Write the structure tokens for this entry.
Amino acid sequence: MVEAVKTLEKLSEIVFDRQSGSSQIAARLLNHLEAATLEIEAGQVGNFLEEAYAAVLRRRSLISPINLVDALRRAYSLLLEEKGAQPDLRMMIRRLRGMYLTSLEVALKIAGGRLAGCERILTLSKSSQVVSALKRVVGVEARVLAGWPLMDGLAAYRDLRASGVRAILFPDLSVFEAVREVDALLIGCDAVLPDGSAVNRSGSRAAALAAQEMGVPTLVICDSSKLDINNLWAPEEWGLELEGAAIRFQVFEKVDRGLVTEYVSEHGCLSPSSFVDVAGGEILSWPRRLLQQE
């Protein structure tokens, strides 16, 4: 019992990490859950998965952790209903992690092909998928909005420069200057809403509006786990103090589907509506795939 409580506390710590991106959080979550299976008795699997699901639901601004844990609990229920057998939770988590990491890598490869030949690309915030994709584009000039007050764009800029990418840092208010003459605006996302809109770091909508006005395509790199298939997403407000002044703001914002040119994912480069359809089918297939025999 004590170990289960510690496991759930660590899970919450991972999910509420404010320094890591949603893909990194999801991967760490699966690693933690696999390690936790060593402490969970067979008869407690169901209760543990329900408590884990309740824990990830406390941060509804990030959808991947919710969908991944939900897939595990649905697979568990499915197995009990159809076979009455106790599942091998560790095997299920390993399989789900393999599926998830493969989707991220395939999305990166497709992004590399989509961006090949681009001379200048604008981005903002620090998405691990965006940064990894930009590192694969030969000779690209990466323009990065600084991301005040979190300065996550600055962190992305430093990462890119350290990897040899020709990166240029712009203040957020210079978004129209930054988007001029670029081949694409490339952003990550923390959720894809049922209507096809993207959710990403605040400032993304302004950048997408500037891109649209300049005739620049807005590409969103993601994977199926980001789709808010159960309509659970909720905004998240952060508070900071700078030089004695309190600042409160929503750290993630909606980028309307009309501003998104393509979702670049493991399924290819798709329109918002097509991605929602394909990703929805993918998520619904997970529980049975987790139970398939090798």
Observations:
- The mean pLDDT is 94.
